[in-house]
Write a structure and sequence with these properties.
Radius of gyration: 57 Å
Structural class: mainly beta
Shape: rod-shaped
Strand content: over 45%
Distance between the termini: 167 Å
Mean pLDDT: 89
């Protein structure tokens, strides 16, 4: 019953001020129509008694218009006395007038589902507020209160006007404000998607990302170092918001977004996402990362290193991680990303120089070959773990399967051994060190090919060599190459199996021969490695038969030296007792088996031949042959 009476009184009170009423001065000599209002209002005076009337509208000092004016407009705010003097009365009669600033009302339009609206009055400057719902309806209500729910029926853009009113006042010049709005069909719940710390400092910065509906009021709330004390922060719109001058160096902050359904008096809340504060320190064992965020709301953590995901930690109570897979003196940039129900939080990228000391990964499969100067050339690729800061490469050498020994340094991925002697198998391997004293595991060894010349039978020469080491996919074949003295390939001799090859040269080939072996890998794009180059020198020899039959049958009738073209040829034939029985410089006809035009007896004879080759080198050959006749 009391609630009903209160409502009736309010209704009478709020609607009465529009009625104009007369207000009588202290002594009753004059009336005015308003004693309260806003700047710009005009009051009107009615004289009840007296003649020779004079009016003072702002006090007793004669200010405020002509003495005979019966109205006055106030242009400034304040408390003023309207005073009247009269010839019939001694002294002044007066009444107090209160003039207020015409402040604009502070109000909020709350959109509700199905195109319903309520207006919230958010100040108490005026005694009451008159709300006009775009001509559809209106309502007057007290300060700090909500209007009734009004339905606009369809989607559209509308306007609401709110006027402030004082009781028992001229409100014609008091504050009136309006806002346009779009009615909505439904309320979209807020979704907070990301919280990114963009500046980690005592006075830092955080950027928020979110998804909001249109034409709805959303409020951001925050709580420091936990989720116990959320406080209103600001009204937000759009898709992002930047919060400045917020402590991000030693604190983390949790955020959520709310919107209020004023028609149903229900608040919609987003999920919570908290910022993360973290630190990273390089130790002798690892890069140690520690972080702070709300471990109850967080579901997991992504550890990001150099822009790539290093690890996902599913235990949300974990707040540290040791990254031991690092290289000394290398800079790493870390980021910790807590994962929440509706999104993630991102910390500031933080760099650290690793101090860890550990075995460095090995260089993989160096290659070796021998150049035209018979120097061993080594090549290799950098370690396959990315760009690793190191001081220098270290070349180690092993000769004839003895122990590995330090040989030299290289700042590049190539090296030339100018001191290889090829008197035994040479093996090489590569490692490297860093500024912290870490030494890499040695690479696999590489063994260049060393060719050797074996037995010589006339124009046939046997060559042999060691196995090349090492190609990952193995060796397709070996090929023997003959070079000229400038390194151009003149001939190739295929090797079908094994690492030995007998090469027969032309009988007329008296030139020096530069020989090497070429190995080809089984890769799709083959690699090649070459052996050292050796010089093969073959003596020019002539072929002479062991037996000849000078019987005029047209077969083997003459003892003739056959072979390559020679110069300055001389042949001598001796009996078994050393007596010279024949000599000639004709290497095409030779000896016909006669002595002084008579047939020489059968038996063994001794021969000697002398000649020069095309290069002017002198040779001599000697031996024995058997002379036989038929019958």
């Amino acid at each position: 019953m009391k609630h009903l009476q209160y409502t009736l009184l309010l209704t009478l009170c709020f609607f009465s001020p529009w009625a104009s009423a007369q207000h009588t001065s202290i002594l009753g000599r004059f009336d005015i129509d308003y004693i309260k209002g806003c700047t710009g209002m005009t009051i009107n005076v009615t004289v009840n008694e007296g003649t020779g009337v004079q009016f003072y509208y702002e006090g007793f000092d004669g200010s405020g218009g002509d003495f005979t004016d019966f109205n006055y407009t106030y242009t400034t705010a304040g408390d003023f006395y309207v005073s009247m003097g009269s010839n019939e009365h001694d002294g002044f009669d007066s009444i107090l007038v209160e003039v207020k600033e015409p402040l604009l009302p502070d109000f909020t339009i709350h959109n509700c589902a199905s195109h319903n609206v309520r207006v919230e009055i958010e100040d108490d400057y005026y005694d009451s507020y008159f709300v006009d719902f775009d001509g559809l309806s209106n309502e007057e209500l007290p300060p700090l209160s909500f209007t009734s729910q009004v339905n606009f029926g369809t989607q559209g853009t509308y306007r609401i006007d709110v006027s402030g009113r004082f009781n028992d006042a001229n409100n014609s010049t008091c504050g009136t404000d309006n806002q346009a709005f779009n009615s909505i069909n439904s309320i979209t719940s807020p979704v907070l998607t990301s919280v990114e710390t963009t500046d980690e400092a005592i006075s830092g910065e955080i950027q928020l990302g979110f998804t909001l509906g249109d034409d709805i009021i959303y409020n951001l709330e925050s709580s420091t170092n936990g989720t116990e004390n959320f406080e209103f922060g600001s009204i937000i719109t759009g898709a992002t918001a930047v919060l400045s001058d917020i402590s991000t160096q030693d604190d983390f902050h949790c955020f959520r977004i709310n919107t209020y359904d004023a028609c149903n008096e229900v608040t919609f809340l987003s999920d919570i996402i908290c910022s993360v504060y973290f630190d990273v320190e390089g130790t002798d064992q690892a890069n140690t990362i520690t972080w702070q965020t709300d471990t109850i709301e967080a579901e997991s953590y992504n550890i990001i290193r150099d822009g790539d995901l290093l690890l996902n930690i599913t235990n949300s109570s974990t707040v540290s991680y040791d990254d031991s897979q690092v290289i000394c003196n290398k800079e790493y940039v870390y980021n910790v990303q807590p994962i929440f129900a509706s999104g993630s939080s991102v910390s500031v990228d933080t760099a650290v120089i690793a101090n860890k000391s550990e075995e460095l990964p090995a260089v993989s499969y160096p290659s070796s070959t021998v150049n035209l100067e018979n120097d061993v050339e080594l090549t290799w690729g950098p370690p396959d773990t990315g760009e690793i800061p190191f001081r220098r490469y270290i070349i180690e050498r092993n000769i004839r399967d003895r122990s590995w020994r330090f040989y030299d340094y290289s700042d590049d991925t190539t090296f030339v051994d100018t001191e290889a002697n090829f008197l035994g198998q040479h093996a090489y391997r590569i490692r490297y060190d860093d500024d912290c004293g870490n030494l890499a595991t040695p690479s696999p060894s590489t063994i260049p090919i060393i060719i050797q010349q074996g037995g010589v039978r006339g124009k046939e020469v046997i060559f042999s060599w060691n196995k090349y080491e090492t190609w990952l996919n193995g060796i397709r074949n070996y090929t023997i190459e003959r070079l000229d003295d400038t390194g151009n390939v003149l001939e190739e001799y295929s090797v079908f199996s094994g690492r030995e090859k007998a090469v027969t040269f032309s009988p007329n080939d008296s030139e020096n021969k530069y020989i090497r072996v070429r190995a080809e890998s089984l890769d799709v794009t083959p690699q090649f490695s070459y052996s050292n180059i050796i010089l093969t020198e073959l003596n020019t020899t002539m072929f002479l038969p062991n037996v000849f039959t000078p019987d005029n049958d047209g077969l083997n009738d003459r003892f003739v030296a056959k072979g390559p073209k020679v110069f300055n040829f001389e042949m001598e034939v001796y009996s078994r007792w050393g007596v010279l029985i024949f000599s000639t410089s004709d290497n095409f006809n030779g000896w016909d088996g006669t002595i002084n035009d008579k047939d020489a007896p059968e038996g063994t004879y001794i021969f000697k031949i002398y000649f020069e080759d095309a290069e002017g080198r002198k040779y001599d050959q000697s031996g024995s042959m058997l002379l036989m006749r038929k019958g």
